[in-house]
Amino acid sequence: MTATKKDVLAVLRTIEDPELKRDVVTLNMVQRVDVAEGRAIVELKLPQRAAGFKEAMRQAAKQGIEGLGLVPDVTFSIDLAGSGSAPDGPGAGASNPLPRVKHVIAVGAGKGGVGKSTVSINLAVGLARAGKKVGLMDGDIYGPSVPTMLGTDRYEVRAEGKILVPFEVHGIKTMTIGALVEDDKPLIWRGPMAHGAFQQLATQTDWGDLDFLIIDLPPGTGDVPLTMSQLLPLTGAVVVCTPQKVAQDDAKRAINMFRQLQIEVLGLVENMSFFIGDDGKEYDLFGRGGAEMLAQQSGVPFMGAIPINTNLRRHSDAGDPTANFTGEDTLSAALEAVTRSVARQVEVHVASGAGVGPTLNIL
Questions:
Q1: Residue 295 and residue 289 in contact, taking contact as beta carbons nearer than 8 Å
Q2: What pLDDT does 93 receive?
Q3: 32 forms bridges with which residues in the sheet?
Q4: For the chain, what is the total number of helices (H) and then of strands (E)?
Q5: What is the pLDDT of residues 336-354, one digit of tens each?
Q6: What residues pair up with 175 in beta bridges, in sequence order?
């Protein structure tokens, strides 16, 4: 039986990008496959970072095609821009390890303790409740909070071959480094180890088709955001800040970090904005409006304020963020407002033609 184009594609699916551990077909690197008169013509387009793998990929393709009884004609081009676009949305292309994800949004902060993970989780759940297909990656690899706040600590992680199967809870898909290490083990990692852990979570998890992948970053401006900017085509970032001046100073650094990495800052969220006491009065424990003022000064949208709320703390400890949206109170209204604001800014950003900005290349 004569080999067909389908047979050649099957061969190409066995050839992996050594860094991303995904095959060249899934990564949209295959530009052309033609089979005629006993000859297989294959054209591959590689991102610049993968240029060094070209000859190994050529040999693997040639051997597989010859095994089909065809004469191989395998050529390559290098995508110097390192990005492109595909029908599924901005940023999908030859160098995109997640071509089935339309929008990747990072949630970051310049310091710890401002509720970044809380915002990430509730943003993901809020978008899912609005009818979107959503994933949440716990990229805070030094102090993962997702297992507790989503209740995944009661489940065992599964893998199919080299690919992790995400947990599906509260209408979203999620994966966390917390599922892969012992609960009480400190993660004392240098840069390369952090890079590897983040890359594994991002590219070796079966996210499937998603409208949004929310990434909860570790606090600060260290190695992980840099790794993310080089690895994934981000739609943009959301910065979380509490009202007081010391938090504003660190949030400003986070905004500047994203801008230096050429990642669009979609907006700023003020968490722990105020507290409503049993007497019904609002108390500004950390001041109020500081993040909104910083947003104006920095020229980024203000996405809303989330109050200090005992139910939010209770539901987070219980691993039940869905409950945050079910009450008719200030908390649910605030979370829904932030969710709508993020979705709106993504629409504005994409409609403007900005798409996904270039990533920073470290030479």
A1: no
A2: 42
A3: 43
A4: 10, 15
A5: 999 999 999 998 877 766 5
A6: 137
Q: Hey, what domains does the chain have and what are their CATH numbers?
A: 5-79 (3.30.300.130), 101-351 (3.40.50.300)
Among 135, 129, 316, 139, residue whose Cα is nearest residue 227: 139
Q: Is 208 left (phi over 0), alpha (psi -120 to 50) or beta?
A: left
Q: Residue 78, class by beta-carbon neighbours within 10 Å (0-12 exposed, 13-18 middle, 19+ buried)?
A: middle
Pinpoint the alpha helices (H) of the chain. 5-12, 54-66, 116-129, 146-150, 191-203, 223-231, 245-260, 290-298, 310-317, 330-351
- Which amino acid belongs to residue 301? P
Structure tokens at 42: 């294959």
Is residue 245 classed exposed, middle or buried when 0-12, 13-18 and 19+ CB atoms within 10 A define those classes? exposed
Residue 146: CB partners within 8 Å, gap ≥ 6?
117, 121, 136, 138, 152, 174, 176, 178, 216
* Per-residue DSSP letter, 77: E
Contact 105, 236 (CB under 8 A): yes
Dihedrals phi, psi of 134, to nearest 5 degrees: -130, 140
Exposed/middle/buried for residue 32 (C-beta within 10 Å: 0-12, 13-18, 19+): exposed
d(CA 15, CA 30): 11
Distance CA(178)–CA(117), nearest Å, equals 13
Per-residue pLDDT tens over the stretch 49-86: 777 888 899 999 999 999 999 999 999 887 654 433 33
| Pairwise CA distance, residues 309 & 160, whole Å | 40
At 120 the pLDDT is: 94
Three-state DSSP class for residue 147: helix
